[in-house]
Amino acid sequence: MEKSRTDTLEEILQNRPEDAFARYGLAMERVNSGGLEEAWKHFGYLLDHSPDYLPTYYQAGLILSRLERPGEARKIFARGIELATRQGDSHIQSELQAALDELGN
């Protein structure tokens, strides 16, 4: 029997827990299956252990928003905007700014 994408990603993380790409992929698998709390655990890990992995910030902010934690979502989006600015990624910067604006005050 062929392994699922989730099984493959979990296996990678058992051997290399610091693998940001695999952890992000697993977090997104959790989002897609409705496991928002589990997804948040992986995004939180990425924010703590791979703070320069820019894709994390948009998805982490969205998850926090969906978990009805808008204050935390705003902080994550703002941190992502700062990182995108430092990395010179205007596309992600504008996506993060739009998400932040949508949350309002």
Chart the SSEs and their pairings.
Layout: H1 5-15, H2 20-32, H3 36-49, H4 55-66, H5 70-87, H6 90-103
Describe the structure.
With 105 residues, the chain is mainly alpha-helical. The chain has a single domain (5-103), classed as Serine Threonine Protein Phosphatase 5, Tetratricopeptide repeat (Alpha Horseshoe). Helix content is 78%, strand content 0%. It is built from six helices and no strands. 25% of the residues are buried. The model has no long low-confidence stretch (mean pLDDT 94).
Task: Give the beta-strand count.
Answer: 0
The CATH class name reads Mainly Alpha
- Specify the biggest β-sheet: none
What is the tally of helical segments? Answer: 6
Mean pLDDT: 94
CATH superfamily: Tetratricopeptide repeat domain
Number of domains: 1
Structural class: mainly alpha
Helix-strand pattern, N to C?
HHHHHH
Q: Which value, in Å, is the CA radius of gyration?
A: 14 Å
**Poorly predicted spans:** none
Ends apart, CA distance between termini = 50 Å
Helix content: over 70%
CATH architecture: Alpha Horseshoe
Indicate the proportion of strand residues: under 5%
Structural shape: globular
CATH topology: Serine Threonine Protein Phosphatase 5, Tetratricopeptide repeat
Notable traits:
0% strand, 6 helices, 105 residues, mainly alpha, Serine Threonine Protein Phosphatase 5, Tetratricopeptide repeat, 78% helix
Quick gist of this model?
This protein is an all-alpha fold and 105 residues long. The protein is built from six helices and no strands.
